[in-house]
């Protein structure tokens, strides 16, 4: 399983490299511009994938050491991480092929796996030396970004297949924002105010604010402020969760 985690971690940046060169079809930026929504983030925000891939690879190398095998939490995490990494890699060619419904299913499954791994590590009572830096933090960041990305993907499915009005997107977009808020706050609570998770989500929400504040789509200004309000709510919850965790019993 240790080797499988490493191979799956290596697959993500490798597939991303080919994807950005159009090996599987139009890249993510091209498709995002082709199907604009009120939830998409500014292009620069997606650069976080570079950090996530690098840190996930560092996790894969760290967990491969024999000493890291003693943790029961880490043992459970390996299967979840390998599954999440494989699904993350698979999502890129699937999205480029414009199989949008399938891409949504893949990214939801990737989130479920990575978020479960992050929850396990967040609640580990006796972490190994280095576990928080090399396992908890990278998997938490991955989960935080995916927790927002699934809703961006859902919006693009709605626009690409014209499942919902594309000239009046604000109403159903607000429903997706509400879903994103519930998911982010629920998972953050399960992880007890997870710093890596929150930072990745905040980065994404800031990117959404920048993109929507510059967009000419009807309702974009409202969407931008909703993203900013959600970021503020996530920060407030995290401060409260951390304060409660450190308060004397």
Automatic annotation (TrEMBL):
Highest taxon of the lineage: Bacteria
Gene3D superfamilies: TspO/MBR protein
Keyword Transmembrane: yes
InterPro entries xref list: TspO/MBR-related_sf
Transmembrane segments: 38-61, 73-93, 99-121, 133-154, 169-187, 194-210, 222-241
UniProt KW keywords: Membrane, Transmembrane, Transmembrane helix
Name recorded for this polypeptide: Tryptophan-rich sensory protein
Species assigned in the record: Lysobacter silvisoli
């Amino acid at each position: 399983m240790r080797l499988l985690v490493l191979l799956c971690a290596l697959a993500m940046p490798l597939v991303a490299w080919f994807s950005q060169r159009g090996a599987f079809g139009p890249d993510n930026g091209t498709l995002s511009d082709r199907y604009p929504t009120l939830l998409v983030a500014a292009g620069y925000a997606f650069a976080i994938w570079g950090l996530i891939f690098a840190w996930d690879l560092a996790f894969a190398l760290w967990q491969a050491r024999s000493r890291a095998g003693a943790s029961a939490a880490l043992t459970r995490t390996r299967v979840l991480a390998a599954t999440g990494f494989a699904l993350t890699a698979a999502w890129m060619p699937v999205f480029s092929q414009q199989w949008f419904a399938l891409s949504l299913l893949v990214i939801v499954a990737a989130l479920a796996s990575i978020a479960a791994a992050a929850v396990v590590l967040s609640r580990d009572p006796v972490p190994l030396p280095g576990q928080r830096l090399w396992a908890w933090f990278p998997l938490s960041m991955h989960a935080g970004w995916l927790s927002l990305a699934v809703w961006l993907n859902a919006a693009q499915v709605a626009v690409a297949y014209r499942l919902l009005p594309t000239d009046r997107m604000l109403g159903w977009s607000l429903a997706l924002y509400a879903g994103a808020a519930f998911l982010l706050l629920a998972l953050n609570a399960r992880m007890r105010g997870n710093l890596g998770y929150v930072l990745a989500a905040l980065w994404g929400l800031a990117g959404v604010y920048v993109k929507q504040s510059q967009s000419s789509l009807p309702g974009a200004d409202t969407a931008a402020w909703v993203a900013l309000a959600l970021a503020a709510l996530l920060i407030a919850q995290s401060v409260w969760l951390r304060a409660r965790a450190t308060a004397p019993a």
